[in-house]
Amino acid sequence: MDKLRAMQYFNRVVESGTFTAAARSLDISTPAVTQLVGALERSLGVALLHRTNRGLSLTPDGERYYETSRWLAAEVKDLESRLGAREAKPRGTLTVGMRHAVARYCVMPRITRFLERFPDIEIVTKPLGSMQDFAAENLDVAVLIGWPDERELVVRPLAQTRHIVCASPEYLKRHGWPREPEDLQNHHCLVFRGAVATLLDRWMFEKGGEQRTVDVKTRLLSDDRTWLDEAACAGAGVIRLVDLTVGRLLSSGLLVPVLTDWEALEAPTIFAVYRRSERHSKLVRVFVDFLVEVFAEFEGERMLVPAGGVPRVPRPEWDSRARGRHSTYAARGRKPA
Question: Of 88, 144, 225, 326, which one has the fewest beta carbons inside 10 Å?
């Protein structure tokens, strides 16, 4: 006997008043209802209903059973509804803000996969400069690079980057290869302005426990990383780039890495953020899951992340305080992290 179905039939008989009315509401035959409710009574060993010419009424055992079975049936219905909603394909519009370089080199080349997987989701993408722009742009999710402030938003680290110092073959042919970090002082360097308005002209390196810091000279600086990419490929100077966003430029030979025996320090984290109120949003969840998948592929290719998640480079002290040139901030007596 299907005990759950028998319970549902019994509840419908009580609520409808007769076996015939219950059968009509369930769109089944009256004998089917009568037989299953009778089987339920036999399995319990008690009568649940008084059957008389004047109609049906509950026995004392039937009253107790009905109160419990009605609650159980409601719980089962609620559970089925929630599970069904969870398994349903998400649909709707999701607004995503991204840093230019992360969008161009990491996310957008793979966005077709997401669109094919979720045909009922419309993605609206917007360029995003910093965490401060998140609320102003009315975004659902943001993908940024730097060191996130975790106090107000949910932060999901996606990848810990590395810095790569590189230049075009043409530039290196004309100006020579830097062999030591200090050699950069004799080169034209292209400087990017960070999300908190800091000109990142102080480059730190480490090799074998030895650290060296160079305040690079520049005549070309920009808030837009992709503009500097184009200038570097055209031979304008040496540039320091995040590795996950430079793969195509290196593989095509447009840029060549230099100082490869030195580790360039203070590489930022790529991360996704969304409001705490969106933690249960299916749209946000599936897109963040997609981002995790994309960056896991990057990490797997370079074997950077050990088991246990994305490692985080501590936020440099200057990131939230320096304005203008990082080198000028350090020269005032404040040491970088």
Answer: 88
Q: 149 Cβ partners below 8 Å, 6+ apart? A: 131
Distance CA 59, CA 46 (A): 9
Helix (H) or strand (E) holding 12: helix 3-16
- Which tokens in the block code for residue 315? 């936020």
**End-to-end CA separation in angstroms for the chain:** 71
Tens-place pLDDT, residues 3-57: 888 888 888 889 888 888 888 887 788 888 888 888 889 888 999 898 888 888 8
The verdict on residue 316 lying in a domain is no
Q: pLDDT tens across 187-223, in order?
A: 999 998 765 567 888 899 999 989 999 998 888 888 8
- pLDDT tens per residue, range 68-88: 888 887 777 767 666 655 556
> Does 75 share its domain with 149?
no
Q: Could you say which of 31, 61, 87 is where a domain stops?
A: 87
Boundaries of domain holding 115: 92-161+269-305
The angle formed by the CA atoms of residues 319, 323 and 325, to the nearest 5 degrees, is 95
**What is d(CA 247, CA 77) in angstroms, rounded to the nearest whole number?**
51
